[in-house]
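Re: the 574-residue chain
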Amino acid sequence: MGFRIVARTVVALLLASLLGLQPLRAHPASRAAVAAPASTGIYLVFPFENEGSSPHLDWLGEGLEHLVISRLSAGGEEVYSRSGRISELERYGLPASAKLSHATMLRMAQDLDADYVILGSFHSDGASLTVEARLLVVSPATLLPKTRESGRLDSLMDLATRLTWKLLGERGSYGVTLTDFAKKQRPLRLDAFEHYIRGLTAIEDDGKIRDLREAARLEPTWPDPDYALGDLYFSRNDCNSALPWFARVPKEHDRYAESVFSAGVCYLLLGNPQRAEETFRSLQTSAPAAPLLADSPELLNDLALAKARQGKAAAAETDLRRAMELGPDEDDYPVNLGLLALRANDFKAAAVDFREAIEREPDNPEDRSLLIYALEKAGKQDEAEEERSEAAESFGPNGVQAIHMDAKNAESWARLERLRTELDPAELRPEFRIAPDPNGADAPGAAAVSVVAHVRSGRQALAANQLDAATKQFQAALAADPRSSSAHRGLAEIARKQGRLDEAVKELQASLIARNSAAVRTMLARVYLEQKKPDLARAEVEKALKLAPNYAEAKQLLEHLQKSGDTKPDEGVR
């Protein structure tokens, strides 16, 4: 989902509203203004306000939000989920239950690149229900007239369907009959739905569990409560309770990938790395989102940990180096790579990896502790003392703790490993991608966020073989940071795929200037082989092995070079 630049007129209206100069009003000709939209657009839905009903019915506010979202989605419309709305509120520093002005809703919609906002209110006497909703067009900023639906409270599902269908018609000619629209909606028991919403919004975990379990009991084939329960137990580190609920989430559910990933994390926490590896691999191969997840650094990191715990050090190193390239600002991946080197008693290589982690995250005292430990084990006492002195200045005399490790104790390693417990939502749902401010003034660190977001999007497009889209994303990353090693590497991979080998070499060399990497040097060696330059290829792979002596791909390529005088790369080492 691309993020468009907001028109000046919208900004002017927003500022006027924020300053209280003029509230947003429905324009008499507003229906004509949006009578024939160029596309259906993207929707952002907010909870409905309780106007005069008993507080016992407050759950209907988020209930109506959920129903409108689900009906829009079932009707084929693009719509932000409740999680997407809450995530955006957190960026604003607001609670999920905050009551927002129209101006704030408009601003959020602009930031999320939504085309329409749906807001509304309800009133109920406990038996009957009246709901009013309005469509707020983002550009040009226009608040359309109210749409009203009334009926018995126990007809909530049908009422929400009629209301949503009418709102879709507010944009202009919708072209789907109410009967056909209703057929697309999942039938649900009202009592199950109420328990589900109450479970989502409850403050205490016990209340959440009680209501979500009741929702799952009343609607045993409805996967939403299943995922919510699994996620709740997972957040409490109760993996034995979480796993059965995650197993009930079907492949077609929009949270399937997250449920499988969390299950894989659980298997690691429960000491079953083989099952964890199988679970993570299934996300890369058979999950609906497999093309997006093949290059997920979080997934690669945890998959590497599962392999490492089974003694598959070479395969684990390959995955971690890939994760390092894809997550250039994360220190967890080089830390795990350093721990892998420590397992092999390669203390010099471990020190290199821990230094890399410190460059990425200078304020993490544990990274510094690990570097000092590796330097001492490597016999470099002077360097260790220098690092200890710098650490004392940065973190105080007690800021860096000594590392005590029992090499034969699996728990000792597990305590130091950096396990990622959730996927980056942007890899699965575009609503979580942060739109970079064209003026670069989003917030501190906005440029870094922009670079990472563009690189991630580029990797996803590249995995799907969408080379033009990938090129645009990597170029956008370089526009924000010309030294982005990952963006240069991405462009090199595209150039190589398209047979532009000289350009691939230039991009890889630019990547190495920004960050010396064994993985990039190995890729450069392969390109040199394709150019029939074996001497240059050998030089690069030898440099790669100096950086990472146990890097499996580099060792395999060097072995090929030693065994064969061919100028073409072996198919097995691509």
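The chain has three domains: 8-187, 318-423, 447-573.
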